[in-house]
Specification:
single chain, about 600 residues, alpha+beta, 4-stranded antiparallel beta sheet, 8 helices, 30 strands
Length: about 600
């Protein structure tokens, strides 16, 4: 009975092991039947070699194709043929069963073989179910940045044109596109409160979620790549990315339920992406030119899109079916924006007209000839008032009933490219081709100040403030300058502390990766030692029968050499772990010290 119990345990363990999907046992045979003709060491099409575990994890010339736990990885989207390039490019695509094997391999942590250790998911799990009504005012204080980096990752001599502005629907917060970064500015004080790096290229479109907590950014590198990234504005974290394209994303928005991202751009295709898997779920071919404007209704039911040919469509987001085809504009659509109640859509065009459409029947309720020569920017406030700017170098404000309120700027300093109204409709912001945002009081049209699109480095700010302080004698001005310098000095300390923390975390991550390599190498040594012992046993049996052992001696010598090589690598990894562990500890200590210094400076 005891022997039977042991046997059952062994069979149970074997069955459990067999449930694991590994590269050696399942993925490589799949690649051999469908992929290795183009992706092997002799013919690495796209820089991708799938014939080895290391080559598969390394990825292609475009980057990694698999990430542990991420079933929306490039590998899955291309074999599903929901994204370009479609794989395989010819012949039958992979079956659902084969795709399921790849998904289970990814979900299981990209195991190389049954002895491997699963890799941890590299993408944070994002909660797709909203905790509150997305259109309702958030509980407590409105979301604002806290302890975000203020050191710009990119500093340029001249600013680029402002592509987009977005005002938080509840907080005094303005998002501004810049070169490879997004600036978060307090719309009351006009002070910079945070910077969101966007290394994927230049951001082109911005949209806050109705609860004001998240900001979706679309952009990329023209003619090469595009993507959307959704940020948490309170801490600057990148929650999810979706919509990997082969050209810049010109317009993007995310549904309040955080389940769908919609994108548009030069491909003329309106695309819906699943945020959890990253997969393309719908691709709508209706627009006849670049999609230049896109907006999801705050209730998430409808999506409006406009193109460079003057076409405007409204779609049902759940099904992707056409809801309205709004025919009226005679030139490129520059904006399509839903009112906060989702019942009214405003569209602006280079034909100079601003049009309002009710969503029940899709009829036009108002047409305004707002700017001769063309409207370049449009924004809705939460109360229904609207702001436009145009090629006539003017900015105009309209009441919720569409009546003209006032002309905010009779002559703007440069061609306007973006516009936004703050949450209360009290301030208008106009971005222009110079890369400057002008803030205007909506009550009297008075200019309140300017926001530069290329903020200087913190050290440059401090040097300038030091110079101004030394040249100032007025007590009030001096007190103001000293307060500003104290603020930026604290920002410099905070930046160093955050950078030290980032380095410490990266070091800890590298240590964990080294430990995983250590475990893998230990498994390899165990297997090689077992093979060596087996060959030694065979040799002893042959020797006892006085048979030749020359061939087996050679095999044993080869195994010994391999074992010695692997043991050397094992020792090197052990040293690396020890080194990295000490480095991580040192960096954590440094981060703690800098944080303490920062807190003392604030006091």
């Amino acid at each position: 009975m005891e022997r039977l119990a042991i046997t059952l345990v062994m069979l149970s363990s074997f069955a459990a092991a067999q449930e694991k999907v590994t590269y050696d046992d399942h993925v490589l045979p799949l690649f051999q039947s469908s992929c290795l003709n183009c992706h092997n060491p002799d013919k690495t099409k796209g820089g991708l070699d799938l014939s080895s575990f290391t080559g598969t994890l390394k990825g292609s010339s475009g980057g990694k194709i698999v990430e542990p736990g991420d079933t929306g990885s490039t590998l899955i989207t291309v074999v599903r043929q929901t994204a370009e390039p479609k794989m395989p490019p010819e012949g039958e695509k992979l079956s659902n069963e084969q795709i399921d094997i790849l998904k289970r391999w990814i979900e299981g942590g990209l195991l190389e073989n049954l002895s491997s250790t699963a890799r941890k998911a590299s993408k944070p799990k994002f909660e797709t179910t909203p905790r509150t009504d997305p259109a309702a005012k958030p509980d407590g204080p409105p979301p604002m940045p806290a302890d975000l980096l203020l050191e710009p990752p990119v500093v340029t001599e001249r600013a680029a044109a402002i592509h987009a502005l977005a005002a938080s629907p509840w907080a005094p917060l303005l998002a501004v596109t810049s070169q490879r970064q997004i600036l978060l500015v307090n719309s009351d004080s006009l002070e910079l409160t945070g910077i969101l790096p966007f290394p994927e290229g230049d951001p082109v479109s911005l949209a806050f979620t109705p609860d004001a907590r998240y900001l979706i950014v679309g952009g990329g590198v023209p003619g090469k790549s595009g993507i959307t990234v959704t940020f948490d504005v309170t801490n600057g974290s990148r929650l999810l990315s979706a919509g990997k394209e082969f050209d810049t994303v010109l317009a993007a928005d995310i549904r309040p339920g955080f389940d769908i991202v919609a994108t548009g751009g030069p491909s003329r295709l309106l695309k819906f992406w699943n945020t959890e898997s990253g997969a393309l779920t719908k691709s709508i071919k209706k627009h006849t030119d670049w999609i230049t404007a896109l907006d999801l209704s705050p209730d998430g039911v409808l999506l409006a899109s406009g193109d460079r040919n003057g076409g405007v469509w409204v779609w049902e987001t759940e099904s992707g079916n056409e809801f309205h085809n709004l025919r009226a504009h005679q030139a490129a659509i520059t904006a399509a924006v839903f009112r906060a109640d989702s019942n009214l859509l405003a569209t602006a065009s280079e034909d100079g007209t601003l049009r309002f459409w009710e969503m029940n029947g899709g009829s036009e309720v108002k047409k305004i000839d707002a700017h001769p020569g063309g409207i370049t920017a449009l924004s809705f406030a939460r109360d229904g008032s609207s702001l436009t700017a145009g090629r006539d170098m003017k900015a105009r404000l309209f009441k919720p009933d569409f009546a003209p309120a006032r002309e905010l700027a009779a002559k703007l300093p440069a061609l306007p490219t973006a516009a936004a109204l703050d949450a209360e409709g009290k301030r208008a912001f106009i971005g222009d081709v110079r890369g400057i945002v002008t803030a205007i009081n909506t009550d009297d049209g008075k200019v309140l100040g300017e926001i530069p699109g290329n903020p200087p480095a913190i050290d440059s700010r401090l040097n300038e403030l030091t110079t101004r302080i030394s040249n100032t004698t007025d007590p009030a001005a001096l007190a103001s300058l000293n307060a500003t310098k104290k603020h930026w000095s604290a920002a410099a300390i905070n930046t160093r502390a955050l950078e030290a923390r980032r380095i410490a975390l990266e070091s800890a991550s590298r240590t964990e990766e080294t430990q995983n390599a250590f475990t893998t190498t230990a498994d390899q040594i165990t297997r090689q030692a077992a093979a060596l012992n087996l060959k030694r046993g065979e040799r002893e049996q042959l020797a006892s029968r006085a048979e030749t052992t020359a061939a087996l001696d050679t095999a044993i010598a080869s195994e010994l050499d391999a074992l010695r090589t692997t043991e050397s690598a094992f020792e090197e990894i052990a040293r690396s772990i020890d080194s990295n562990s000490r480095l991580a500890h040192d960096k954590k200590q440094e981060a703690a010290a800098l944080t303490q210094t920062y807190q003392q400076a604030l006091r």
